[in-house]
Structures are given as C-alpha cells and as structure tokens.
Amino acid sequence: MFKDMTIVRIYLRETDRGFHKGLLKEMMSILHDEHKVHGVTVFRGIAGFGRHGDVTSADLLRLNVKLPLILEFFDDPDTVEAAIQALGDRVPPGHLVQWTVSCKI
Amino acid sequence: MFKDMTIVRIYLRETDRGFHKGLLKEMMSILHDEHKVHGVTVFRGIAGFGRHGDVTSADLLRLNVKLPLILEFFDDPDTVEAAIQALGDRVPPGHLVQWTVSCKI
Amino acid sequence: MFKDMTIVRIYLRETDRGFHKGLLKEMMSILHDEHKVHGVTVFRGIAGFGRHGDVTSADLLRLNVKLPLILEFFDDPDTVEAAIQALGDRVPPGHLVQWTVSCKI
Prior knowledge:
The structure is a homotrimer.
Chain A: E1 2-13, H1 17-34, E2 40-44, E3 47-49, E4 55-57, E5 68-75, H2 77-87, E6 96-104
Antiparallel strand pairs in A: 1-5, 1-6, 2-5, 3-4
C-alpha cells in the first residue's frame, strides 16, 4: 500500500564550518525533538556552487573545504508543513525545495 | 525527447554493518541480476536519524558508525513496480518512496 | 511563499577518472558561467551499476574506483530548459531526469 508524503531538501554550505555545523545541529534538533520528523538524512556533496557563483570542490587532500550539505527528510504533508514553519528563517530563501512522493507503508 | 519514468529511494541504515551490508547486496543483486534495473546508485549520508529517534553522525575519526544508506534507482514504471515487488519485505514499511520523473532519452 | 522550479539529476560515472572529471568540469562550467544556474551540487555514490550491468563499489582501501557521480541543480523551468539544451550531447541518453518541485522563496 502506498501513501502520499512530502519530501524536503534544504541546501546548505559549509562556508563557515562552525556556523553551519551549529545551524545544521539546530535544525536537526528542531526536526528531531520538536517534530519527530521521519527519515532525516544529511548528505555532503563533493562539489558545488551557490547563488554567488563561487565554485567549491573536494579532493583527497582537502576533505573539509566549503562543501554543499543537503538536509533531507520526508513525512506526511501536515508534519512537514509544521516542521518547515518551525525552521523559519534558518533556511535562506531559495534553499528549500519540496515535492510529493508515494511512500510504501 | 522526454519519457516518464519512476524514481525510487530506499532508506536503510548501517545499524549492524554486517547485516545491512548483506541486505544491501541482496537487494542490489535482485535489482541487477533479476530485473536489470537502470541507474542504481547507493549513497551514504553523513548524519541522520530514523523512526526511533537515535541520531547518528560521522566525523573523520569515526568513518563507519551507523550511517544512513540510500539505495536509489529509476526505470520505466512497469520495471520499477516488478522490482519493488521482488524486493518485498526486505524493505521495511515507510522506508521506500517513489515519484514520477521525466527522463531525457 | 512557494514557487514551482525544476530539479535536474544527471547520472555519470568515473569509468575513466580523467575523462569524466573533464566532462564534469565542462558541464559545471556551462551551468555556472553561461547559465548561472542555481543550486548545483555534485554527489558521489558509494556503489552502483549502470546500463551495462557492471557493479562498482567503494571501500576504505579503494577510494577512487569507478563510482557513480550525480550532478544536481534546480532553477526556474526556462533556465533549466536552456541549460539542458546547452549541455547537449554531453549527457548520454537515459542519464538525465527532471521533475517539478516547490521552492520556498
């Protein structure tokens, strides 16, 4: 059986490792402790560029330079909507996308 | 020219590295040998939490702790439906999502 | 406020590291310099197989073997359409998927 759910991706970047690590932890804590959202995963890209056009990339000798971080989660539409509202301004404009998926339950 | 296809994401976790490595291999073998599914990719997240709320994360000194694994593939809707049926109970409820994409052919 | 955008994923593989690294750089340069596309991220999978069925995987001792690379970006539908046209034959048939997402602006 399948059920409609909403999947969310939030695009961050490690411009200032400390800052974003803190921001990421804060957002994960909101999703986890307050909203008990399902299926939260954080991915790190190996290269990318953002709105301001600065290219970043990783190689084996520079493991921690300014890499893209993607925070992804999915849950039923109401839970997702409440979670996005709780994240508020922590997510910069244009950095959050969502779409409907069919989840096997 | 574009054609409708279905993309699937399955969310696993390395709670027991041996077990999930085995499960992942078994599922990849089903997708690969039996269903010849297109575009199979496995990603490892750097942090996440699941239904039971235990947060996991990786840093440079703990490369192999309980990280999220995502198995992703896409193909035409019929092939995907058959592949999902073949995977059966290997996928826990609520851990598989799918949606329609437009594939450039 | 939310706005419809198109997200694109392009599936590559490091079969020949030099070649694909070059191809990837060329495609990123087109997306970045010519089309100023938003939210470009490159991910590396840890395992996968393609149309020809050769399984690939990474472990800690073989960090650079033939791994899947995903180039992802999203922007408004017109920008994405122009960017895909500019990428042209650099993307093999069946290796690009796109779908509509709702972006928080």
